[in-house]
Design brief:
Layout (H helix, E strand, L loop, with lengths): L2 H20 L2 H8 L20 H40 L2 H9 L3 H10 L6 H10 L1 H11 L2 H8 L10 H8 L1 H16 L10 H22 L4 H10 L2 H27 L3 H9 L4 H22 L8 H9 L9 H20 L5 H10 L4 H8 L12
Helix pairs in contact: 1-2, 1-15, 1-17, 1-18, 3-13, 3-14, 4-13, 5-6, 5-10, 6-9, 7-9, 7-10, 10-12, 11-12, 11-17, 11-19, 12-17, 13-14, 13-15, 15-16, 16-17
Length: 387
């Protein structure tokens, strides 16, 4: 295997591992193959009484029953997920309906992001659009009134409490809005709950933020439009958000219907097995890894941006670069940003080795300047000043 092929293989493995980690630390460990056992020598083993023959027989019977039940439950899960997979793909055929009912993306959001991308942007053009989005107006007012930003304004004797979106827009300013509005939009689209994957919502949110900030930093170094990079870096996770919401909603609907049918038809074993089933992390991580970029590309295409140059970039991210062509500068930024944001979370959970990191960074051709800048960057908060 050539060095490039080895690096490519490492990149694919680490991408999958980062997706596994979204669903839980222990699940990611399981997928790597770590075995959670403590081989501790406590000295002489404790003497145990010999089991009576009747106890041995009962133990074996319990084991057989348990094994049979586990097999039956696995079959029930497989059949359930075949129906769920078909239902998800059927829903994805109507992307307009998914955007409106599953994610909840309003047309005004795309218009606002487009306006912010051009030099002729003004608060006056944004105001009526923001007024139509009550959730965005509330978020902007809350942001301006945070103690940290009120303290900033108090130094200039402007620490009045802001109570309208129009005033909040003016205090925040266009430069900050280019970062704030994509961030608030993606947060608004997040699932309300991701149970039983309790940390998934937070990890999706952290991933989008790290991705956007990494993209902004890398773009700045390479003379690529950093606002385009930040916005697309934030939007890149919309496919994962969509698939998580679709899966959890569809699982609940299909599962409830199957349980009801099993109860009505008096299928006791199936009913018991179904009651024990929960959303499957392996199914979801596979779905996210294989389909999220494709879904992101379709959602972004439907947002029909006039000024944000995302279409060609998303095509390259989805299908790869055609032979004889070269990757667009923004495509290169996105690939590096996604890699680095995944690296951050894997490193935090000690799920990546130094040699894997080196191969991964080499595969995406990070420069020393890029890595040095990223190593000293803050990926959790937007660096904005509100006057």
């Amino acid at each position: 295997m050539t060095e490039l092929a080895q690096q490519q293989r490492t990149a694919k493995i680490l991408d999958q591992r980062a997706h596994d980690l979204l669903l839980g630390h222990s699940f990611a460990h399981q997928q790597i193959g770590f075995i959670h056992t403590l081989d501790i020598d406590y000295g002489e083993p404790m003497k145990q009484r010999t089991l009576l023959q009747v106890e041995v027989s009962a133990q074996q019977k319990r084991k057989q029953t348990s094994t049979a039940h586990h097999k039956y439950r696995a079959q029930a899960s497989e059949q359930l997920h075949k129906v769920i997979e078909t239902a998800i793909f059927k829903q994805l055929e109507d992307m307009d309906a998914v955007i409106q009912t599953t994610i909840g993306i309003e047309d005004s959001v795309a218009t606002i992001l487009d306006i912010l991308a051009v030099k002729s942007a003004s608060v006056g053009r944004l105001e009526p659009l923001v007024n139509d989005l009550s959730w965005l107006g509330r978020e902007l007012v809350t942001l301006v009134n945070l103690p940290y930003y009120r303290n900033q304004r108090s130094k200039k004797n402007t620490a009045v409490k802001v109570d309208s979106p129009a005033l909040a827009l003016r205090y925040i300013g266009l430069d900050n809005l280019q970062l704030v509005i994509p961030t608030f939009a993606v947060r608004h689209w997040m699932p309300h709950s991701t149970e039983p994957f309790s940390l998934l919502k937070r990890r999706l949110r952290d991933s989008a933020m790290a991705n956007a900030i990494a993209a902004q930093k890398i773009a700045e170094i390479n003379d690529v439009n950093e606002i385009h990079a930040f916005t697309l870096g934030m939007l890149l996770d919309v496919g994962r958000i969509t698939l998580v919401r679709l899966y959890l909603k569809t699982f609940e609907q299909v599962w409830q219907r199957k349980v009801q049918i099993a109860r009505q038809e008096n299928q006791k074993d199936l009913h018991t097995a179904l009651l024990e089933l929960k959303p499957d992390p392996l199914f979801l991580t596979t779905l996210l890894c294989n389909k999220s970029i494709q879904v992101s590309a379709r959602v972004i295409d439907k947002m029909a941006f006039k000024y944000l140059p995302f279409k060609g970039v998303m095509e390259q991210l989805q299908n790869g670069v055609n032979k004889g062509d070269s990757a667009l500068p923004l495509t290169q930024v996105m690939l590096k940003a996604r890699c680095y944001s995944q690296y951050l979370t894997l490193k935090e959970h000690q799920l990546i080795e130094p040699d894997e990191t080196a191969a991964w960074f080499s595969y995406f051709q990070f420069t020393k300047t890029e890595l040095k800048t990223l190593q000293t960057s803050n990926f959790t908060n937007l660096a904005i000043q509100i006057d």
